[in-house]
Design goal:
heterodimer, A: 377 residues, mainly alpha, ABC transporter involved in vitamin B12 uptake, BtuC, Arc Repressor Mutant, subunit A, 2 domains, 3-stranded antiparallel beta sheet, 79% helix, B: 369 residues, 17 helices, 4 strands, 5% strand
Chain lengths: 377, 369
C-alpha cells in the first residue's frame, strides 16, 4: 500500500476513518488527563478505574436492557467513580497504602463484574456479545455515532481542563497552597479525578479494560521527558496520545488479524521508549553521553594532575617524566590515550617516545585544577 | 457430581491460600500492584513458552511464564531507577506493553489453538477438574490441584525458611542490608514466588482474580492484626472462607466461580473495614463518641471544681449557666449532666450542681496532669 492510497483510505474508508478518529480522540483526551494522573503519582488509577467500570457496564445493561454506548458508559462511569471514592475513603481511614487500596478495589469490582456478566449470559433475551468488547476493546466495532459521543464528551473534558487549568495545576503540584489561599481543593480534587474516570471510560470500547491504563500513563510519561512546563506537557501528551491512536489504527488496518487495541498500546510504548532515550537533557542517551564525557574528562584531569605533581617534585619543572611513572600513579588505566588527548589540546608534550612534560598552558590548567580541588597551588 | 464439587472447592482453597501467603508480603511492602502487573504480563510468557514447547500442559510453560513475571519486575525497577518516571508510572508502562505483545502473538499465530485471552484473563474454575492427572490407569485427581498444591508447598517452605529474613527486610530494609542480608535477593525471590503462583493460579481463576486473592485477604488481615504471623494465618483463613463461600454462592446462582470468590474477598474486606475490633470504622466512630462525652464530663467536673465554695458559686454552679460559660447547647449540657450524674461524679442539690468526691478527684487528677 502506498502512502497515497493510505491517505485515501484514511479519508474515505468508513471503518478506518471511524476507528482512526475514535482512537485519536481517545489518545488526545486520555493523554491530556493522564498528565495529571502521572504527576500526582496516580498512574495506576487508570488501570483501577477501567477494571472497576466492568460491574457498572453489566449493571447498566441488566437494569435498562439497553446496549446503547451512552447507557453503558454512564454505568461504567458511575462504577468507576464509586470505586475511586472507596479508594479515597480506605486511604483516609485505614493504614493501607494506595497500592493495596487500588489492588483490592480493582480486583473485587472486576470479580463482581464477572459475576454479573455470567448472570447476563444466562438471560434468554440477551447475549453478552456487546458487553464482552469492553474487556478487550473492539475498535473495529466503533460506529460513527460512538465517535460522535466520544467527541462531545472529550470536548467537554478538555474544556474543563482549560477552564480550570490553574486549579488543576495547584492540585497537581501544591494542594496545600491552594487550601491556604481559600480554594476548595477537595472539590477540585474530586472534579479532576472524575474527569479522569470519564476519560478512562471513554476509551474502554476502543482498547478495553486492561490496555486503557497504558493510554493514561504512556503519553503523559513520554511528554514529561520533553518539557518541564505543565501546559506544554498537557498539549504534547494529547498530541502523542492521538498519534499513537491513529498510528495503531492504521497499522492494524494494514495487516489482517492484528487487533487494534494492543497495536495502539505498542505504538504508545514505542513513543515512550523514544522519549526516554532521545528527549533532550533528560533522555537516557544524552545522560549516558554526558557520563561518558565526564568520565573522560576526569581521566584527563587525573593524568594532568599526576604529571603536575611529578614536575613539582623535580627541581627542573620542565623535566620530562616517564610514562611508566604516570601509569604507576594512575589506577584507572588508559594513561597513554589520555596523554595523547591532552597533547592534542596542547597541555602536554612528548619529549621523547616515553617521556612527557607539561606545556606552559598545561601547567596553568593543572594549577587551576589543583586550586579547585583544594590542593596546594 | 459431588466428587467434582469437592474437587473444585479443594482447588479453590489451595489457590486461595497459595495466593494469600506471598500476598501478605506484597501488601506490607507496598508493592501490591506488582501482582497486577505480573499476573497480566505472564500472558506473554505463556504464549512464547507455548510456541517453544507446543504443549499447554508442559511444566516448562510455568517456568517460562514465571520468568516473564520476574522480567516485568526487573523492567519496572530499571525504569524507576532511571528516575525519568515514578514507580507507579513504570508499572503502568511495562505490563500493558507486555500484555499487548502477548495478545498480538495470540491473535496472529495462535488463533486456532486453545489459548485465548479470555481464559487467561477470566479463567474458569469449573473446568479445572476435567483435566486429570493419571499415571497408567490410576486417576490421581485434577492436575491443577497437584500443580497448585506443589506451588503452595513451595511458598510455604520459602516463607517458613526465610521467615526471619522476610520479616526484617519487609519492615526495615536498611537494617537488613546492614546486617548482611540482601534485600534485593529476597525481593526477587519473593517476586519469583509471586510469579510462579500467579502462573499456576491463572489457569484456575484468571489473572485479575489472582490479584483479588493475593491482595484482598492480606489487606483484610492487615486491618485486624499487628503481628506478622497472625496476619499470614488470617490472610490464609480469609482466603479459605472466601473460596468456599464464593464457590457456594456461585453454585447457587450459577455464575462465575472465580468472580464470586473475588466478590467474597471483597465482602470480607468490607466487613473488616467496617467492624474490625480496633481499626474498623464503627469502632473508631464509637471511640470518638465516647471520648467526646468523657472530655465533656471532665470539662464539667473541672468547671465545678473551680467555682465550688466560691462567692460566685450560686450562679456558676447552675446547669443553665453552662450554656454561657462552656459554650454548650442546652441539650448537650443536659446530656452531659445526666451522664455525669449516672457516673456519680456530681449530684444536684437545691438547683445547683455539686461535685461528688469521685468527681472532685477526677477534676484534680486532670488538672495536675
Amino acid at each position: 500500500m502506498t502512502p497515497g492510497s493510505l491517505l485515501q483510505d484514511l479519508l474515505f474508508d468508513y471503518t478506518l476513518r471511524t476507528v482512526a478518529l475514535g482512537s485519536a480522540i481517545l489518545g488526545l483526551v486520555s493523554g491530556a488527563l493522564g498528565t495529571f494522573a502521572v504527576l500526582r503519582r496516580q498512574s495506576l488509577l487508570g488501570d483501577t478505574v477501567s477494571h472497576t467500570a466492568l460491574p457498572g457496564i453489566a449493571l447498566a445493561f441488566l437494569l435498562t436492557g439497553s446496549k446503547a454506548p451512552l447507557v453503558l458508559l454512564l454505568g461504567a462511569a458511575a462504577a468507576g467513580w464509586l470505586g475511586t471514592l472507596l479508594i479515597v475513603a480506605v486511604l483516609r481511614t485505614t493504614r493501607l497504602k494506595s497500592d493495596s487500596a487500588f489492588g483490592v478495589v480493582l480486583s473485587v469490582f472486576f470479580g463482581f463484574g464477572l459475576v454479573l456478566l455470567t448472570l447476563i449470559q444466562k438471560r434468554p433475551d440477551a447475549r453478552q456479545a456487546g458487553l464482552e468488547k469492553f474487556l478487550f476493546g473492539q475498535a473495529t466495532a466503533l460506529l460513527a455515532q460512538d465517535v460522535a459521543v466520544m467527541a462531545v464528551v472529550g470536548a467537554i473534558l478538555l474544556a474543563v481542563v482549560i477552564v480550570l487549568y490553574k486549579e488543576f495545576k495547584l492540585a497537581a503540584f501544591d494542594p496545600d497552597f491552594g487550601l491556604s489561599v481559600g480554594l476548595p481543593m477537595r472539590r477540585i480534587d474530586i472534579l479532576l479525578t472524575s474527569s479522569l474516570v470519564v476519560a478512562v471510560v471513554l476509551g474502554l470500547q476502543t482498547v478495553g479494560v486492561v490496555l486503557m491504563s497504558a493510554m493514561i500513563v504512556a503519553p503523559a510519561a513520554s511528554a514529561r521527558q520533553w518539557t518541564d512546563r505543565l501546559g506544554t506537557m498537557i498539549a504534547l501528551a494529547g498530541l502523542l496520545g492521538a498519534l499513537a491512536g491513529v498510528g495503531g489504527a492504521v497499522a492494524s488496518s494494514l495487516t489482517s488479524r492484528l487487533p487494534t487495541g494492543p497495536v495502539i498500546v505498542l505504538c504508545a510504548s514505542a513513543i515512550v521508549i523514544i522519549s526516554l532515550t532521545l528527549a533532550p537533557r533528560r533522555g537516557l542517551l544524552w545522560s549516558w553521553l554526558r557520563r561518558l564525557r565526564n568520565r573522560r574528562r576526569l581521566a584527563l584531569d587525573a593524568v594532568l594532575l599526576d604529571l603536575y605533581e611529578l614536575s613539582r617534585q623535580h627541581a627542573d619543572r620542565a623535566h620530562p617524566h616517564a610514562l611508566a611513572a604516570l601509569e604507576a600513579m594512575n589506577q584507572r588505566g588508559g594513561v597513554g590515550r589520555s596523554l595523547a588527548a591532552l597533547a592534542a589540546r596542547g597541555l602536554v608534550q612528548a619529549v621523547s617516545a616515553d617521556a612527557w612534560n607539561l606545556t606552559p598552558a598545561g601547567r596553568q590548567e593543572a594549577e587551576r585544577l589543583a586550586a579547585t580541588l583544594g590542593r596546594r597551588p | 457430581m459431588s466428587g467434582i464439587v469437592l474437587e473444585i472447592q479443594l482447588i479453590a482453597v489451595v489457590v486461595a491460600v497459595a495466593c494469600a501467603l506471598p500476598g501478605a508480603f506484597l501488601v506490607l511492602r507496598r508493592t501490591a500492584m506488582l501482582s497486577d502487573a505480573i499476573s497480566h504480563a505472564i500472558l506473554l510468557g505463556i504464549v512464547v513458552a507455548f510456541f517453544v514447547v507446543k504443549d499447554l500442559a508442559s511444566p516448562l510453560l510455568i517456568v517460562g511464564a514465571a520468568a516473564t513475571g520476574v522480567l516485568t519486575v526487573t523492567l519496572v525497577e530499571m525504569l524507576t531507577r532511571t528516575r525519568l518516571v515514578k514507580e507507579d508510572a513504570a508499572i503502568g508502562l511495562v505490563f500493558p506493553a507486555l500484555f499487548s505483545l502477548g495478545v498480538l502473538l495470540i491473535a496472529r499465530y495462535a488463533g486456532n489453538v486453545h489459548l485465548d485471552t479470555d481464559s487467561v484473563l477470566l479463567g474458569e474454575l469449573a473446568f479445572a477438574p476435567l483435566n486429570r492427572l493419571t499415571i497408567g490407569e490410576t486417576d490421581l485427581g485434577p492436575k491443577s490441584l497437584h500443580v497448585m498444591a506443589g506451588i503452595l508447598a513451595l511458598g510455604l517452605a520459602f516463607i517458613l525458611l526465610f521467615y526471619k529474613e522476610l520479616k526484617l527486610s519487609t519492615f526495615d530494609a536498611g537494617l537488613a542490608a546492614v546486617l548482611g542480608f540482601s534485600p534485593a535477593a529476597l525481593h526477587y525471590a519473593l517476586m519469583t514466588l509471586v510469579s510462579v503462583t500467579a502462573v499456576g493460579a491463572f489457569d484456575a481463576v484468571g489473572s485479575v482474580l489472582v490479584v483479588a486473592l493475593m491482595i484482598a485477604p492480606p489487606a483484610t488481615a492487615y486491618l485486624l492484626t499487628d503481628r506478622l504471623a497472625m496476619m499470614l494465618i488470617l490472610s490464609a483463613l480469609v482466603g479459605v472462607v472466601s473460596a468456599i463461600g464464593g464457590f457456594w454462592a456461585a453454585y447457587a446462582l450459577d455464575v462465575s466461580i472465580a468472580g464470586a470468590m473475588a466478590t467474597a474477598t471483597g465482602i470480607c474486606f468490607l466487613g473488616a473495614y467496617l467492624w474490625a475490633p480496633d481499626r474498623g470504622l464503627v469502632a473508631v466512630a464509637r471511640r470518638r463518641r465516647r471520648q467526646r462525652w468523657e472530655f465533656a464530663e471532665t470539662m464539667l467536673a473541672i468547671h465545678l471544681h473551680q467555682h465550688e465554695d466560691r462567692p460566685e458559686a450560686a450562679t456558676e454552679l447552675r446547669e443553665d449557666h453552662l450554656v454561657e460559660h462552656l459554650a454548650w447547647t442546652a441539650a448537650f449540657a443536659g446530656e452531659v449532666v445526666r451522664r455525669a450524674e449516672r457516673h456519680g461524679t456530681l449530684v444536684r442539690r437545691a438547683g445547683l450542681l455539686e461535685l461528688t468526691p469521685p468527681g472532685r478527684k477526677l477534676a484534680r487528677a486532670t488538672l495536675s496532669r
